[in-house]
Amino acid sequence: MIDSAEAEESPAEALLRARRHARRGVSELILAVRALLDAAALGLSHQPARDHALFAPLSQILDDWSTTMGGSEDDIGTLILDALETEIARWESRSREDEEARSVLRAFLGLREFLWEMGIRSKQDSSPSASAKNKAPTVNPTAKATREASRVRP
Description:
It is built from seven helices and no strands. By secondary structure, it is an all-alpha fold. The chain has one domain (about 5-125). The longest helix is centred in the N-terminal third of the chain and has 35 residues, at about 10-45. The chain starts with a helix and ends with a helix.
């Protein structure tokens, strides 16, 4: 049944309402993942994820993302990628001294790759100069063959 207020709204207003619902849904999804992380931490060490040495940083990230998704109107993909880049940088520096941090770093790198494959880009990745940097270089096959031939000397 259509509410009279919904019947009077414009398509742009309906899209905005849909976006708000989607953001809250994503926030709830993140909280569900956070609860699964708690269950894993409790099962492994009898302490919640926020108190676990390995799970605490991820727990904090999920809490932050949930808060951001629930209350902000910024682009979700950009927010996630920005937070992910921050965590990747932090875990890269940490992984230089800690073997176990490398596993966490690999997980974040995999998530970034997955998001990239899904078409989610940060604002800097979608700019024309960034897209030119991300393109594979084009090589003239004839020029390449000539260079390779000149390296081979009998």
